[in-house]
Amino acid sequence: MPKEKVKIKVTVAGRNYPLKVTPDEEEHVRKAVRFIEKRIGMIEKQYAIKDIQDIQALILIELASELQYLKNKQENEEQLVLEKINRLLQL
């Protein structure tokens, strides 16, 4: 049975976004929003960029790059584990 969703409001870059999330997801979403807000402030200072759309694009690129890196790392680790299992099975 699917979990019931709750309505929450989050604010990113001064704009409000209503979301429906499960109670388990709520804290993760709020942490993500805090992370995004922190990154916005850091990028504004570091690069002197004022256009929020440019800042959001940079954050998306950073996050997508990190996600891709982590996926590749996980795939490589899974492959190593499978190779070790196969070696052990051959003993």
In which range does the helix fraction lie? 55-70%
Q: What gap, in angstroms, lies between the N and C termini? A: 44 Å
Mass-distribution shape = flat
* Structural class computed from helices and strand pairing: alpha+beta
Order of helices and strands: EEHH
Largest sheet: 2 strands, antiparallel
Averaged pLDDT, please? 94
Uncertain runs: none
Tell me the count of domains. Answer: 1
Q: Hey, roughly how much beta strand do the residues contain? A: 15-25%
Helix tally?
A: 2
Sheet with most strands: strand arrangement:
1-2
| Number of DSSP E strands | 2
Q: Determine Rg (CA atoms, Å).
A: 20 Å
The gist of it:
The protein is built from two helices and two strands, in the order ββαα.
Could you characterize the architecture of this molecule?
With 91 residues, the chain is an alpha+beta fold. It has one domain. Helix content is 69%, strand content 15%. The protein has helices spanning 23-47, 52-89, and strands spanning 6-12, 15-21. It has a two-stranded antiparallel ribbon. β1 and β2 (15-21) form a beta hairpin. The radius of gyration is 20 Å and the shape is flat. The termini are far apart. The model has no long low-confidence stretch (mean pLDDT 94).
